[in-house]
Write a structure and sequence with these properties.
Order of helices and strands: EEEEEEEEEEH
Helix content: under 10%
Number of helices: 1
Strand order of the largest sheet: 1-2-3-4-9-8
Largest sheet: 6 strands, mixed
Number of strands: 10
Structural class: mainly beta
Radius of gyration: 17 Å
Strand content: 35-45%
Shape: globular
Distance between the termini: 32 Å
Length: 141
């Protein structure tokens, strides 16, 4: 039985984590605007998922696919990731050698009321409401 593994993953608080249902990977959501996929057997980061403008509040692996997962962010976005999309790799984190990934799909303003989006605004001086944070994600079985 393997011993305990200590891994420093983020430079900010971790809000959520989820194990990949098929292997030894753990994904963590952080206030540093990233989700990190870590190979816990090797004790190193393998993917850095950048949320582009928001604290990552929650993460969820797709229970039917080892390479697909989702992140929910404070800016109201849901990002869908497919770790097989090699063309989405944008760089390498030097100290960890983790591949920096871009999302495959993003769902902007996931909690906005669609009916309100279609109505023209009556006043341009009104303050825009802050985005509603995404704090939990669940895949439909």
């Amino acid at each position: 039985m393997p011993g305990r593994v200590d891994v420093k993953i983020h430079n900010n608080g971790i809000f959520d984590l989820d194990w990949c249902p098929f292997d030894r990977h753990l994904v963590t959501a952080s206030g540093d605007h990233t989700a990190i996929v870590t190979d816990m057997e090797l004790g190193r980061e393998v993917y850095s998922l950048n949320s582009y403008g928001g604290t990552v509040k929650c993460v969820s692996w797709d229970p039917a696919h080892a390479f697909r997962l989702s992140t929910g962010c404070r800016n109201g976005y849901i990002y869908l990731w497919d770790l097989r999309c090699k063309e989405k790799v944008t760089g390498i984190i030097e100290e960890s050698q983790a591949a920096v990934m871009s999302p495959t799909i993003d769902i902007r303003d996931a909690h906005d009321d669609i009916s309100q989006l279609k109505k023209p605004s009556r006043s341009r001086s009104k303050k825009q409401k802050p985005a509603r944070s995404i704090t939990s994600l669940v895949y439909n079985p």
